Amino acid sequence: MFLLILFGLMTANASIQKNFKIDKKVPLLRFADIISTHHVHSEMDCSFRCVNEATCVGFKYKHGVSSPSVNCQLSNTTGEKIMMDDDDDDQGWVYFVDIEARLVSEKIGTIETLTTTQVNPTTLLKHNECFGYQWLNESNRNQKYSGSDRHCDGGFSGSFSGWYRFGGGAGIKIATSCVPEYRCGAVAPGWMNGTHPTGADGNVTRKVCYHDVTCCRFSNNIEVVNCGQYYLYKLSKLPSCPLRYCGSYN
Fold first, then answer.
1. Measured between alpha carbons, how far is 35 from 42 in angstroms, rounded to an integer?
2. Minimal CA–CA distance to 208: which of 226, 225, 189, 187?
């Protein structure tokens, strides 16, 4: 399933709105195709820059970059004629393309039905948590992973505290239904007992349960915030081991 981001930015003259979707492939941008490069905290930051740039019709974003390196490239091309081959290494880059610009470029009148998420930049910018976080991206953290692993998230306290985002093979958010035992690389997998907040809800507290014989033999509280296109979690110390926070794609 494609991911669609809908952004609207009000200016003094008009309402600027661009609709981005993740492309299946990543273009090999040439020097002339790049408007500017930036170091940003998230794909949301990169998209705002593209909305503000009149000639921007797409942007490349590299997930998980915590150094000052460039992780955002604004482009003046929709990229369909300069895509990488399937066996090329994209080095972690993801390409977001403006749907309307792609339709004009390819001279087609319809697109696939996409999942739409309405994002309010004003609401997003109220949450300082959205601009500083660490990644949980291990494939064996996903709720569908099964094995004899006995990992334990024993480090989410003290110097390891802070906000975390699920990504990569781990999924896009924490699991929200009871996960079978011996999944996501732990004996007792953890899942969030409750719904994810809306952007207007702000920072909320949720209960995480760990399945060991019963779906909620152990539990602890975490904090959750909706950052528009992703969720962040302030994870707390686990009540025991081997317990682990589990990720999910849905």
1. 19
2. 189
State the pairing for strand pair 134-136/163-166.
Answer: parallel
pLDDT by residue (tens digit) across 67-94? 557 888 898 887 666 555 544 445 677 7
Cβ proximity of 134 and 63 under 8 Å:
no
> Any residues with CB less than 8 A from the CB of 24 and at least 6 apart, and which?
none
What is the identity of the amino acid at 189? P
**pLDDT tens-digit map of 121-150:** 444 445 667 777 888 888 899 999 988 888
Indicate the pTM of the whole model: 0.55
In DSSP notation, 70-103 reads --EEEESS--TTSBPPTTS--TTEEEEEEHHHHH
Chain centroid to Cα 163, Å, comes to: 13
Residue 168 has phi, psi (to 5 degrees) of: 60, -140
Q: Is the dihedral of CA 225, 231, 236, 240 positive or negative?
A: positive
Report, as ranges of residue numbers, the positions in the chain whose pLDDT lies below 50.
1-15, 86-89, 105-125, 158-159
